[in-house]
TrEMBL record:
Organism: Rhodoferax saidenbachensis
This protein's name: Protein-L-isoaspartate O-methyltransferase
A single MF term (Gene Ontology): protein-L-isoaspartate (D-aspartate) O-methyltransferase activity
GO CC field: cytoplasm
Entries under PANTHER family matching the protein: PROTEIN-L-ISOASPARTATE O-METHYLTRANSFERASE, PROTEIN-L-ISOASPARTATE(D-ASPARTATE) O-METHYLTRANSFERASE
């Protein structure tokens, strides 16, 4: 089930995330030498504008801002959608699934970093992502954590993520094909667990595989809500027990069981 990504190509993440809070809140990123098709002259400038918008929405963690500025989102979407890659919108990635909005990816990443157990470098230890999709969020997480285990239940998307990430040198990202509702016990316990798909209950395996002091962030269908309204659920595993809070409404693809 586990396959490590160890491609030989040089990294295409065009900047390292800023590890310490900078005087200017937006990290300075060096520009991309190549001109990506359809994204204008310089994709790093477009990303920088996206990062500024994210800051305007309240995202402030320097590691998160650095990662959002570094990962080339346009390389994860269909060529016909490249022009929309840096808008704050979800986009289709095939098989009825979507890449999450940058606003949601950065919001959830920040929630993880605010809660999950971190090392001296300020990064999370091991992170489990449910719903690899096109692999974009896994690439973002790779800059925020020591190890990223990412599970996808659709073979077509698992393969697509593998292809998308091939050119990135991300030895700390482990792509897995399987049912994420079972988690991935071998990689745990996890400092943080993040789901990119929402179900009406939280799988017990996720809670079990969360480390003490760890944080889980997942969209969850609100019980009894009309039209299956989802909200972000934040769960902390503390020595005093499980603490949960429900945050803002969100809209994610459904969490499904089994593989296809
Ligand atoms: N993080 C992704 C978002 C993909 S959308 C990205 O950056 O592109 C959510 C994904 O969750 C979909 O690809 C869907 O197939 C997947 N998914 C839904 N239920 C799942 C499950 N039980 N296990 C693993 N993946 C699941």
């Amino acid at each position: 089930m586990t396959t490590k990504q160890r491609p030989s190509f040089p990294a295409r993440l065009d900047a390292k995330p800023v590890a310490t809070p900078a005087k200017t809140a937006v990290p300075v990123l060096k520009s991309v030498p190549a001109t990506p098709q359809g994204v204008g002259m310089d994709s790093s400038a477009v990303r920088m504008r996206m990062v500024q918008k994210l800051q305007g929405q309240g995202v402030s963690h320097p590691l998160v801002l650095g990662a959002m500025g570094a990962v080339e989102r346009h390389r994860f979407v269909d060529s016909a959608l490249v022009n929309q890659a840096y808008e704050d919108t979800s986009l289709p990635i095939g098989l009825g699934q979507t890449i999450s909005k940058p606003g949601v990816v950065s919001r959830m990443a920040e929630l993880l970093l605010q809660g999950g157990a971190k090392g001296p470098h300020g990064k999370l230890g091991r992170v489990l992502e449910i719903g690899t999709g096109c692999g974009y969020q896994a690439a973002v997480l790779s800059l925020l954590a020591d190890e990223v285990y990412s599970i996808e239940r659709l073979r077509g998307l698992h393969d697509k993520a593998r292809e998308n990430l091939r050119h990135l040198r991300l030895p700390n990202v482990h792509l897995l094909f399987g049912d994420g509702m079972e988690g991935y016990a071998k990689g745990g316990p996890y400092a943080a667990i993040i789901s990119a798909a929402g179900g009406d209950r939280l799988p017990q395996a996720w809670v079990d595989q969360l480390a003490m002091g760890g944080r889980l962030v997942a969209p969850t269908v609100m019980p009894g809500s009309a039209g299956n309204t989802q909200a972000l659920l934040v769960l902390d595993k503390t020595p005093q027990g499980i603490r949960q809070s429900i945050l803002e409404a969100v809209h994610f693809v459904p969490l499904k069981s089994g593989v296809a």
